[in-house]
Amino acid sequence: MGLLSNRIARSSLKPGDHIYSWRTAYIYAHHGIYVGDDKVIHFTRRGQEVGTGTVLDIILVSSGPNRSQVPCPTCVPTHDAHGVVSSCLNCFLAGGILYRFEYSVSPALFLAKARGGTCTLAVTDPDEDVVHRAKYLLENGFGCYNVFKNNCEDFAIYCKTGLLVLNQFTAGNSGQAVSIIGGPFAAVLSTPLRLVTTNVYGMAATAVGVYCVGRYAGDIGVRPDAVKVPVEDLMRRLATGMLQVVEPSLPALLVPTN
Asked: Which residue is catalytic, options 31, 91, 119, 152?
């Protein structure tokens, strides 16, 4: 792994690794926890890798690879509604390339990797704790899937660190979500500078700076609202309504879903 790529060989995988694979055109990446024996536990929206309940689903799903219609001989079909599933490594990758998410990176390396969803400043817990959380959530779920606030990357980061952002009015843990929100936000914030300078390079540099600051401040490793939550306590909070993640409500963009 390094500055340009987190790509790894299968032979270097070990239980507790946070892995991901970019889908077609690098529009998004799907994340999960490798638990050994060629198995990956990952969070989906009722069996689908992504989902918003809006027309955005059409764009995201169409960007993915064509999946085989032949049932996998090693993966057991799941009928659970909570979305946390176990798949073999081949099914998880879906024809994509294997990457390993990096933890405890330096601020310089974090900012050098301009695309979010590949690394974090946060420190990972021991591998046995990571696997325990993933297997516990496989049985109990991880709340309601939300592509911006509670997605597959959030799931994997929680399994690795035990950290959650409990403030429901902020973006989730994931670097992908921060990147999606942060790019347009940086452009908006830099727009007033046109009143000060007409230099397009100066405005571009400012937009990049605002984006980098937003990414850094939004990382789970430095957020002041990130707290350590034991997985058993997480289930209690979800069951009692003390912790809720609701799906986005965009009535104008809704499309029929089953």
From this structure: 152
DSSP 36-80: ETTEEEEE-BTTBS---SBTHHHHHHHTSPPPPSSPPSSSPP---
| Sheet containing 84-88: order of strands | 84-88, 39-43, 29-36, 18-22, 99-100
Do residues 32 and 154 lie in contact, with contact meaning Cβ atoms separated by under 8 Å? Answer: no
Task: Determine the Cα angle at 7 with ends 3 and 10, to 5°.
Answer: 150
CA separation for the pair 174, 129 (Å, rounded): 20
Active site residue 152: yes
Name the catalytic one among 30, 31, 82, 119: 30
Residue 13 has pLDDT above 80, yes or no: yes
Residue 104 in tokens = 């405890």
The reported pTM is: 0.77
User: Is pLDDT above 80 for 151?
Assistant: yes
User: Coil, strand or helix: which one is 146?
Assistant: strand
79 is catalytic: no
Whether 144 is catalytic is: no
- Residue 146 and residue 247 in contact, taking contact as beta carbons nearer than 8 Å: yes
The packing angle between helices 175-190 and 152-161, to 10°, is 120
Contact 121, 104 (CB under 8 A): yes
- Determine whether 247 is exposed, middle or buried from the number of CB atoms within 10 Å of its CB (0-12, 13-18, 19+): middle
Please tell me which residue in 31, 42, 91, 159 is annotated as part of the active site. 42
Question: 221, 101 in Cβ contact below 8 A?
Answer: no
Question: What pLDDT is attached to residue 246?
Answer: 45
Contact yes or no for 50/57 (Cβ under 8 A):
yes
Longest dimension (CA), the chain: 63
Chain centroid to Cα 44, Å, comes to 11
